[in-house]
Specification:
This protein is an all-alpha fold. It has a domain at 19-57. The chain has one helix and no strands.
């Protein structure tokens, strides 16, 4: 027979408060966008400008 693990948080790893969990869940996407979005937008705009310029020739 297998032992059943408790799903309760242990004292060494307490559950975060709902507010702390909400803050943590918004930090990662914001940081990811801050790090990657400018480069992504620049590349997409450059590619679109090149595409439009080729069509005008």
């Amino acid at each position: 027979m297998r032992a059943v693990r408790s799903r309760r948080p242990s004292a060494s790893f307490p559950m975060p408060s709902p507010a702390a969990a909400r803050r943590a869940s918004t930090r990662w996407p914001r940081r990811c966008c801050d790090n990657n979005l400018p480069t992504l937008v620049e590349r997409l705009v450059r590619e679109e400008i090149e595409r439009v310029a080729r069509g005008a020739q």
